[in-house]
Automatic annotation (TrEMBL), chains A, B, C, D:
Belongs to the AgrE/ArgZ ornithine cyclodeaminase family. Residues 5-103 form the LOR/SDH bifunctional enzyme conserved domain. This is Ornithine cyclodeaminase. Residues 205-416 form the Arginine dihydrolase ArgZ/ArgE-like C-terminal second subdomain domain. Residues 129-149 are annotated as: Disordered. Its cofactor is NAD(+).
């Protein structure tokens, strides 16, 4: 063990698993540790402090270990400013750029810890120094001498000359801590399916959470898959939108088309439009529905024209609930409202994600992953799908407080509606 | 093509798929066919008749083809009596024994077509000639000279000397025909998941079917897995048993224990007993519940002692709904009511299956397969499971009229209860 | 039954299931039929002919029945020219437009049956009359008086004034017929998982099919998901591309990035880049890989620069195997080669699909559905996924000859490689 | 907080998660803790010691908390002898009996800590005092005055008068600790699917582990489902048994019948016997195979008679590899070797489980759960199944060192065979 560095951890790091995970990381990666100081949190509300020296055989091994420890919240003991390097080209990052977690993060710039705005994973950190004469920060990055700002940028948003944080120095991550009160029905950092309660009880708890968010004027984002319509949960979801329990909606072209098709054709053709297994039947209506919305100019115009007068999309328009319809290569049509460029769609989804306090991921893997990619670990998440692998995959992506429920969306939404509205 | 035989088919054989399947079987197995007579059913209620010669290269190939055609309902054109051969030993069948389908079957004995009692698949057909002096047929098989009877026997029930049908001669199978009215919500011979309707509508249709069976004094057999208790469907199922919608119950030791445990411990410990994911917690109660029932002598005794006063097993006892609890190598305990010998348990299940008019298979693969093995193809079946592979596997086993539903048993049973009782 | 129409069917319609399905459709939709003429195909190679009158209560019911019968290959007995109506606007179809199946289709124009180019489902049929002075048909549609051409157009390609086929008149569909030789290992119209053979045998048969397509100078399109890289099938796939067994590749940004990342970082970091369950680790390399390819200008440029010198994308470039990388809202980056607009990506996929003789769908639902949407029912398809629901969904979409295999892509591709190359 | 008790923990309790879990248990269950002494393990090989006081509102709450802490390895600070109470009847335990975990456990009897023989979960602990004149302990329990022995007893083995441990006093559990070397490819207490390596690499590591067990003269128990035969892994498994890599086999009647059927009929009928999806075909052979084995008297007799001369069961007989065939209600036949009583079968499985050093659970949930129920947490386990839910469920049941692999058994076993034998 020829190289060493001292790191510190602080907080509810024992019951949050951080401390144990850090010891494990060092051992698994072939290093050694020597605890220098350890002050245990002696009761529920007391925090634990640990300072330890980490040793490895080579500088490269040590760097790798420190990188992992950093992601867990450990910081090197003698803080220095973060290293900054300009992006060499648009869409290109310096070789040693720091790739973000979705936890609250602080960067040390000019001797001060600056909180990163909108933490999001797999981004670069870009430092801008506000121009005192340009407090809005619209001037050239790096040229001002005012308050530094640090923000996350996805690769395609990085511009030549952006000052990108590199290495691990001067970065502090705050992984979520286990809530002192257990977190209610939300599991803490739990990558499996939380079936702590039978289905009906769990639906009650999700309803409670939605009521609470509504009471606090929070923002509920519903991420919706077409299975909602096929399985028969559409009317109940429309009721929830109408009653104000959904503040924003994120979906694909298919969800909106199926919803609108039921409105345009549902009454007369009934069954066919609800049929998941025989998608061929009634497909003409599917295409014709899109054609009609194209003719009218969009969903809002179709509502105004009175052609669409019920359903989820109708309720969104009628209640000013903003929606994003992201395109995919599976789409028919698409509708005029659908954003066909994936980068543009991601940017729209990113805004929704940043505003959300509670995200309901309802029977869609694609859109849930897209939203999840933009969420900080502090946003509460509810994932509902009939496929346990989907629920597990979504929970693994990183909300610190999540409920996963393996159930039938066609019975879930009606029962949630009854719980909230009756 | 050196060998040939003439076969006949009759009935709604075009829309039931029989005719096409027979042509396919001959071609797939390397044979040829020559249709000699074909009288198409010209309208909905008219039957089709086909007589064709089937040719193959070898006698063995022809036999194999004829075997498959027989299973589809084809009969050789010149009927002769079935060939009978005595079973050489207990549990041993003659080499060329006829292995049954689960369709209605007739065997030609002494020039007469005799209907097989209780058709069941993978059985031997045993012919008994009633003794005129012993009309109940309790005498030695084969020694009487009265009316012949033909019954299915599973291998372990075959006794030395039983007259077992061999070959394909003198056997007529009547595969189910496509119902003229479409069969309502029940799919015809459809080995996939019938999601013709969204969940709520499908539950309504299952409720309708149950009402109809009840109205006709029919017999509903509920096959129950422990997931019913874990997922929170237990109280609703108890309500249905109490209201007379379930005429018999087939389950394993685990289902009963979980149900009883909720009764003995449910109130005070709440959550733990309902917890599927953390089966360790509260497991002491699980074992102690069994211990208590052992001490009292059984479930009925526990009800009589007032120790068990609600839940599914309670309602079964209180309403004289007979139940079979079949043991398995996964069991804790088991309860005194559990039949630990698998042959004995199969026999008990067989009786339940033979009496059922409608079978509800609720979140258990093991018990559903066991019941399904004993069912004739004419019994209506509803399969509910959250795992689509389970539903597909159960539907593939052979009911002609089946509804498969991939949903959460914890929301399904409460919604079914509301539909039937409210 | 107040309205009636006579339809005809011809071909191997009994064993292909067409005849039975048509009888079923009429009965299920509340109609009646009266067979007027029926000439059965008396042996394997003889075709069956049926003419029948279909009756319904209302004109609307009859239309709906005829629509379904048309999709099955039935044609109205007295052929008339197809009805044409101009598209009212770009992206808008006439209300009664004919929505295509993916079967070979003919449209009667000016008394002649014209075969539809590139049949594809859910499209409009657009008739163009070639200008004699403009035989390439580049002039305005509908204004020429030369040979009529009929093509499929997806909704977004429909232009104002396009002559769109409406109604069911003058359209003949030829659904695939059951192959006379059974189709080898490919199942016929079989919406389940064809596990006729154990895994090793099935892989041998897929290899045989690939050899055959290669021998006939056919085109194999591989549709690839990122699980190929995670599960360890990447090197074997690269070998197959290098050996000429793959003629085109369709994938997403993620597949290419994972493949390239292994090339750029694989040697030194090993495990991390192959890790499906811990996507956080090594994610920096993921982003930096994209950054590097952006810097170099694209995959081909990266190969030319010697930065990428092995793997699937490398072999594609080195062997002139064209690839399409379609973007999605899940993407990091994306790579410069990724088509971010979904309509543009669909068009690129459509060209690949039209040229393919055999499509291998390898562990990706999204891209397989996108490709499958563009395929005629005559293209052979192999679907491989570890999730049975994915395989079932893909087979249901409509290839007449398909093999579905539920297996681990990480063992499947190496075994296929060994079979083909050793 | 009116009641309190002091508990101690010792070992690698931070990185094993024990410490954090204990803090969490107290908080989740509404208690409080006050750490009195905490000596952190300062480096990799140093152990941590913690003494803390746990407080709760009621004696009952405190008991519940202490119960959970005990399962985690915490012991009350002032050790007293365990409380013993005689079982009131056969199969009945005292109300407050201690229900075991599958971790190494010690019971304090007469002031000494006695290690529990064969730890197994959900059992009662029974203390016997060896009679000095009867050192084998065959005399009446509780009457001797020699060395006390403590063993686990499942409920049905408890006899009236057995001295059963009650309460939590005098019991010490040693949950497994995180291996200092990371545990190789075996995950530590990890209830998900460990896909740390791509399929081929993971198979190599499983092969390494098997080689190591073989080298150390250890015992490998293979738990086998019928899918092994259907999917085509049977010959490879037979090779592994023949080569000495399997020391015991645990399966059901179905596995053996399918294996034997391939032997009796495989050559001539090929495909049919391997067909998972069409279980009807060739089913006659299935039943006839059983009939033949019944006629011969059993599998060993069939091998001796030369009727069975290849396959897994043949290799077991030829190489003296003991096997247990446990019956179930799904069985046809069954074979004479099949144990039809579930308690008797469990006892046979228990013996196999206790002797195993490495358990391979191969595509069977039922038998794997039955074996898993009898395993101590210290036995290494490999679970292979194509259904991720099965793998997750098996890993959740409690081996401290387990590998879960979601793959196709039909490709897995041949690749494992090649790895070990080529």
């Amino acid at each position: 063990m020829t190289v060493a560095r001292t790191v510190e951890l602080e907080g509810h790091i024992i019951d949050s698993g951080t401390m144990g995970h850090c010891f494990g990381v060092v051992m698994d990666m072939g290093g050694e540790f020597e605890v220098e100081e350890f002050e245990v949190g002696r009761h529920k509300h007391a925090e634990t402090y640990c300072r330890m020296t980490v040793m490895a055989d080579t500088e490269e091994d040590l760097r790798a270990i420190l990188h992992e420890l950093n992601q867990q919240g450990a910081t090197v003991a003698d803080p220095r400013d973060a290293t900054l390097e300009p992006a060499p080209e648009d869409g290109v990052v310096p070789i040693d750029f720091y790739s973000t977690t979705n936890h609250p993060t602080y960067v040390r710039v000019d001797g001060e810890w600056v909180e990163v705005a909108d933490p999001e994973m797999d981004c670069a950190l870009v430092v801008e120094r506000g121009d005192p004469a340009d407090p809005q920060g619209t001037g050239d990055a790096g040229e001002g001498d005012g308050e530094p700002r640090v923000s996350t940028k996805v690769l395609n948003a990085v511009e030549e000359g952006d000052l990108v944080v590199t290495g691990e120095t001067g970065i502090r991550v705050e992984p979520p801590e286990r809530p002192r009160d257990g977190g209610g029905s939300f599991g803490f950092m739990q990558g499996g399916v939380s079936s702590e309660r039978p289905s009906e009880s769990l639906i009650e708890e999700i309803a409670d959470e939605m009521r609470e968010v509504q009471a606090e004027d929070g923002n509920v984002l519903a991420v919706c898959g077409p299975a909602i319509v096929h399985a028969g949960g559409r009317d109940a979801l429309a009721d929830l939108v109408g009653a104000g329990y959904v503040d924003a909606l994120s979906a694909g072209n298919g969800f909106a088309v199926h919803d609108l098709e039921r409105d345009l054709y549902g009454t007369s053709l009934g069954v066919d439009t609800e049929n998941l297994e025989h998608p061929r039947e009634g497909h003409k209506h599917h295409i014709y529905t899109i054609s009609e919305i194209v003719r009218l100019g969009g969903i809002e115009e179709a509502v105004e024209a009175g052609v669409v007068d019920e359903g989820v999309m109708y309720e969104c328009v009628a209640n000013d609930v903003p929606f994003v319809l992201a395109g995919s290569i599976r789409d028919d049509g698409p509708l005029p409202d659908t954003i066909t460029d994936s980068i543009e769609a991601q940017n729209a989804i990113r805004e929704q994600a940043h505003e959300a306090d509670l995200v309901l991921m309802l029977s869609t893997l694609l859109h849930s992953v897209a939203v999840g990619n933009c969420l900080p670990s502090t946003t509460k998440t509810v994932c509902v799908d009939i496929n346990p692998a989907t629920v597990t995959q979504l929970l693994d992506r990183g909300s610190a407080q999540a409920i996963g429920m393996v159930t039938d969306i066609g019975t879930f939404i009606p029962m949630l509606r009854d719980e909230l509205l009756e």
